[in-house]
Design brief:
By secondary structure, the protein is mainly β. The protein is built from 3 helices and 26 strands. The strands form 6 sheets. It has a 5-stranded mixed beta sheet with strand order 1-19-18-17-16, with no helix packed on it.
């Protein structure tokens, strides 16, 4: 098929262990997404998996989960330290960098926090929207308007209530003096449905000023990902005021919602603009196996659930097909699943040997994964931060060229990776 089929844990060429063993033992091949309250997942690895995690780590200072940070770690091409900028965050989900050097962080239960030079500011930002904080729902991503320095606009994605249940929504508001004003919901997923899973909810501004919004299949509505009459399982593209760009691929098509840019997605929790291009990449959770990285193209069908490299959590077959005419193939996929969340291309100057690499957080396998690219092809992968034994929810490059990471727990951290 011309694809690199990467088993979780393979191609970790500089971790000193044959591919596959560490990851396979750590989760026994079962993809657990996103929420510790599902009961499928324990925050800390134990038994053989935990012991093996200590064996394969190269160069990490002697520490255990919960040990004080900073610490140091050795990548294949860069040694770096990990510094905790803020702790005690309640399931942090998204982050954005303000021009004055402070950092906005969302907490899934509904608070928007600010991390400044002295750490976490004590009071949350006032005026945030009411959210459906249940399961994987809540206050999710945050991005700044491209002209934030002039207009002070920020955008928040969240699970919002409505007739029929809940769905992904996007609001914009002005940030000033620790408060949001003029809050306006500019996008609402149609339809609202019951349940607390698969809201997607990453936000990315494209170079043309349009806003991309990821939405999941809501868990029990996976077949709707093939239905252009709903937003379920789609990527939407809107203008900064919520209106529909006239060049969207399904504008004017009967029975299709005009905001849709691409469809056939399961649960996209990471999107990133590739530097120097107008191309947005996305990763999404598979079920039990079949996590994917895709290049988003207008009007394309990414196959879920008609084709998949995964099976149901029960072991049942979702589809016996991994490819079909008219459906896109991933750049790379993982079997077993790593449960990816967060995504970022690195193009800074602090880690020159990481330039052009793609970074993906992993929830189920609790690490940061570095993907080396040759064009659009993944040629190598490396696992980082696995000895933290923390679910990695988000990764972003800061304006200063460092990498910033959010760990997902009731006492989550904002971490910064700095070269030694």
């Amino acid at each position: 098929m011309g694809l690199l089929n990467v088993l979780a844990g393979t191609a970790l060429s500089r971790r000193g262990l044959a591919g596959g063993v560490h990851d396979a033992m750590s989760m026994t091949g079962v993809a657990v997404e996103e929420d510790m309250r599902t009961g499928f997942f324990s925050r800390k690895r134990g038994g053989a998996a935990g012991a093996l995690g200590g064996m394969v780590l190269l160069g990490l200072s002697a520490c255990s989960a919960g040990a004080d940070i900073p610490m140091t770690e050795r990548s294949g091409v860069h040694d770096f330290r990990v510094t905790r900028l803020a702790g005690g965050l309640d399931h942090p989900w998204g982050l954005a960098f303000l021009p004055d050097g402070r950092i906005l962080v969302t907490e899934r239960e509904g608070a928007l926090r600010i991390v400044g030079p002295d750490g976490l500011e004590p009071e949350p930002v006032r005026g945030t929207p009411e959210v459906y904080a249940s399961g994987q729902g809540g206050l999710l991503d945050v991005v700044l308007h491209p002209d934030f320095a002039e207009n002070r606009l920020i955008y928040l994605s969240f699970a919002g209530r409505g007739d029929g249940g809940a769905g992904t929504e996007v609001a914009r508001a002005r940030l000033a003096d620790g408060a949001l004003t003029g809050l306006d919901v500019i996008f609402r997923q149609k339809p609202k449905v019951g349940g607390g899973r698969h809201f997607g909810s990453r936000l990315v501004f494209a170079p043309d000023g349009t806003l991309f919004i990821s939405m999941g299949d809501r868990g029990s509505h996976m077949n709707e990902a093939q239905n252009l009459g709903t937003h379920i399982g789609t990527i939407a593209r809107i203008k900064d005021d919520g209106s529909v760009p006239p060049d969207n691929p399904f504008v004017g098509r009967e029975g299709a919602l005009p905001e849709i840019y691409s469809y056939g997605h399961r649960n996209v929790q990471g999107m990133a603009l590739r530097p120097g291009t107008s191309t947005i990449w996305a990763q999404e959770h598979g079920p039990r196996g079949g996590d994917e990285v895709n290049i988003l193209r207008p009007g394309r069908n990414y196959g879920w659930p008609a084709i998949t490299y995964g099976i149901d959590y029960s072991g049942a077959i979702i589809s016996d097909k991994t490819e079909a005419p008219g459906m896109e193939q991933p750049v790379v996929y993982w079997v077993p699943s790593i449960a990816p969340s967060g995504m970022e291309f690195y193009d800074g100057d602090k880690f020159p040997n990481w330039r052009g690499n793609l970074f993906v957080g992993a929830l189920a396998h609790m690490h940061l994964r570095r993907l080396v690219l040759d064009g659009d092809r993944v040629t190598e992968q490396e696992v980082l931060l696995d000895d933290l034994e923390e679910r990695i929810r988000a990764v972003k490059q800061g304006p200063d060229g460092y990498l910033y990471v959010l760990t997902d727990s009731s006492g989550g951290d904002l971490l910064r990776l700095e070269p030694l």
